[in-house]
């Protein structure tokens, strides 16, 4: 029985594309963009001799460069995710990476498959754009998850600082020094902006909108209300920290409870595609008797439409809003 290696080659090439973009990122920026470093990136840049103003300008540029490029065709699909992930690649560099990955994918398809040139070009473009999107989306989810986990500790650190008599700006600076990335550098930017005259509440609001995170919005609103109406900021933030921790525990609990349903949905959505790939691998001539008929292409389109609808509905049914 002949076995077609083409589907396996497609999968291997896409995996190679993902590994290549990660390798390029580490090669260009090295450990300076690592989220697991003990010293956050802002402090690392300052320790290497960077001036405070220059470091702030560099970090602000990296934080906003993707949003300002939102009008570029196709790049708008990546801009929001790349901004949340704080990808150090500039928009132009990221687009060049897409082109490079597309070329590599085309070369791999040319060497490993006998598909028509037009088919190879379409698949290579899809792999170049899709590979970068999957990679950026993964980076964004990881970074946002780490910020959500760090935020309660950061707020409690500010509470302890306020209770010993430090002003709020000093509490922000302590968080910037004591907390690792990604939250440490973000609060470091807020501390530096405050030192140069920007209102802290405006910086917090900007961070909350850039990260699109509800807990950060709660923090910005709490500080704003305290500055306008007065009150004990330490007590307000202490209550906020408890609320954030309670929300975090609730999200984790909901995630654990719905894990089975989500995996079932993923399995039911992926099984038809996996079955299709296995059929083409094990018996490449399985559809030879029907693929030349007039109804084959419309039937394929209808099947894929139903698969797409199935994926969307499975996602809606397992996406629990809290």
Overall CATH architecture of the domain at 146-249: Up-down Bundle
Here the CATH topology of the domain at 146-249 equals Receptor-associated Protein
Give the CATH class of the domain at 146-249.
Mainly Alpha
Radius of gyration: 24 Å
Note the gap between the termini: 52 Å
- Biggest β-sheet strands, sense, barrel: none
Task: Give the class from helix and strand content and strand pairing.
Answer: mainly alpha
CATH superfamily of the domain at 146-249: Type II secretion system (T2SS), domain F
Task: Summarize the amount of helix as a percent range.
Answer: over 70%
The share of residues in extended strands comes to under 5%
Notes on the structure:
Helices cover 78% and strands 0% of the residues. The protein is mainly α. Among the domains are: 104 residues, Type II secretion system (T2SS), domain F (Receptor-associated Protein, Up-down Bundle); 65 residues. The radius of gyration is 24 Å and the shape is elongated. The model has no long low-confidence stretch (mean pLDDT 84).
Question: Main traits of this protein?
Answer:
13 helices, single chain, elongated, mainly alpha, Receptor-associated Protein, 322 residues
